[in-house]
Protein 1
Amino acid sequence: MGLFSKLGLGNNEKQEAAAPSQAAPKAPAPAPAPAPREPVPEIRAKETEYLIDRSYDCPICAAKFKNRGSKLRARANRQDDDLRQVYDQLDPMKYQVILCPQCGYAATEKYFKEIFEGQKEQLIKGLGSGFSYTVPEGPFTYEDAIFRYKQAIKCMEMKGSVKDSEIAYTYLRYGWTLRGKLESLDPKAADYAENMKATKKEENLAIAHAYKGFYEALQKEDFPVAGMDQLTLTFLVAVLSVRFGKLDAASKMIGQILTSHEASARLKDKARDMKDEIVAKKKAAGQQ
């Protein structure tokens, strides 16, 4: 079974999902729906002002095309524990995937051009012919973005040999995109509870794959990894370890950051906050 089959992303989109042989950590049960709140619009009032169409050459079919991206350079108004940046103007995660409309090759911008010859052959074979995609006008909806991430994940599977960090990077941003969708759902909608539950489940599973990939990359890969230095990645893996109940492992990693002479003051502050959370969770679970 493919690594990504649990998301139902094999060559046949409608194929029944099956657990991969090397499964990611089991995702936690979806959280209960929060109390009614004002949703964040999935397309912001001035989102178009922060978008730009950039030109690309497809490394698979050589087609020339334009891809809508974000030119946002504003300061984020907050950051989630797992380093997701949140902006008022738009959700830049919707625009992270580059998709060739001719052949269907897709990847996050960071990895779009990183194709080895053997991988190219696999992608040509896997993508086949007959792909058809019309780029939506204007800003992307979350459904537009989700389609693009799913296509990127399919292409990662077709490559065959992919770094753990590339898998993790793509899944983390997919999870962040799903979190953005969660924040946009209208609690007054008739299908709110059902949509919230399904989207939260998919976000949890995406983050589980990201956790597994980054944990492996932390042990095996040379730094920087996915643009992160060792301490930043250690913090991220610690945060995800807490999410999946691996409190002892998280505590050890946080300790490494707090005793490091190279960690920035900001990272140490975040590590102290995470340490307090770990202590509280252990106490609640009756652990020492």
Protein 2
Amino acid sequence: MSENNLSVPIARDIGGLRAAVRNWRRQGLRIALVPTMGALHAGHLALAQEARKRAERTVVSIFVNPAQFAPNEDFARYPRNLESDRAILQNAGSADLIYAPGAADLYPDGFATRIVVDGPARGLESDFRGHFFTGVATVVAKLFVQCRPDFAMFGEKDYQQLLVVRRLSIDLDLGVDVIGVPTVRESDGLALSSRNAYLGPEQRTIAGALNRVLDSVAERARAGVSIPQAEAEGAAALISAGFDRVDYVAVRDAWSLAHLPAFTGPARVLAAARIGNLRLIDNKPV
């Protein structure tokens, strides 16, 4: 059911969501979906603003998806404040409906289906978080089926996820145009993320180096430095900057994320590195 004491209503179950969608469809309106896990920031608002350009109605979903967290990850402490998120969307005027389902709406008793993805899901994040893209693909497919949007907005910060979801929509004939939205960054270039709040002052200074190192790797690859050398230099630079561990620095094909023998066209440099217990990811075009 929906709560309407503020002008951005909340649908807390599938019935409330579908009632709103049916009403909009009767009016011939296009619908965009912005899937989020809440803890909204300017990056999420950029997604919603892009949705406004393409559709007459925008749904922002807020659901912290347990299926994409491993047992040792931060599901329990992931920030949750629905009323704060609602106020942010209200002040920005960037949503017509918040869809905030409970776990039972996405994973009811007896739920036994998972979507296994390949293609752009192979390697990189999958090498370190083997569960992740199955969890993402399953919940996104559910949200697409429940909302039936014309468009769905995903940030380029999670570039591999963007390509996986785009492939998912095509392969399963879901009919959703998956739109990538450029990364929103802080003044030193750090990509906005809800997890940035976990950074202490010293860690925050170190984190700002990630963006600069990615730019350097991209520049070196464009200049003709071999891709393995540019990647190795980038990983070493992150360690020198204070990161505790580098999971990967990789230059890949921009559309498939396939390995590149040499830089010959559109590519992306992607990285994941850890400061203490916090893992940061980012990417830049080459």
Protein 3
Amino acid sequence: MSDVFSTRDVGVVIVAGGSGSRVGGEELKQFRWVAGKPMLLHSVQTFMAREDVGMVVVVLPQRYAGDPPPWLFQCDVDRLLVSVGGRTRSESVANGLDDLPDESQIVLVHDAARPLVGAATIERVVSAVRAGRSVVAALPVVDTLKHGDDDGRIEHTVSRESLWRAQTPQGFPRQVIVDAHRRAMADRVSATDDAALLERLGIPVHVVRGSERALKVTEPDDFARVDALYASDE
């Protein structure tokens, strides 16, 4: 890869600012061990394995940002920054964007709760952004979808054609995502993912193939699922 890229122009913002209360316990979800190491460390090391990644900004809750866990510094500290999380996910990402160096003209935003994101998925995202697109790693919906009312009664079947399950990383040209966050802040808008901030402005966002291994840890049983997926190929 070093023969192709003369500069490290990719910046990564890893969002690890949430409390993860649904998984239980007092320890932060992103600090818990899964598949042989702390969840957050999986993602940081995977992104740092790319030679074109110049900086990884980890966004942590305020009480941890000043004193991060020591295992985090097993990474390349010259390419690691810790930023303070905000009140919402959008604020946390915006804080991370502010801390990226000027050289980071390709921006990837990733959720720490997806520890097994693979190199192939990241490559698809980066390649698409290099081609000028804003993209989301995603998988097509394969289940039959039903729309129900407040009492749980099925009202109709939803067509799954053209429906995708969004994952991370999501990738953007830097100025595009920075402008989208600035507009959202001015309009007091927050979103559960960054692509939505572009969609509201009418900016095209495309999908690239994600991976079943990029499971998002949200429930206690998900730790066992990640352990099982860890040995599988992407």
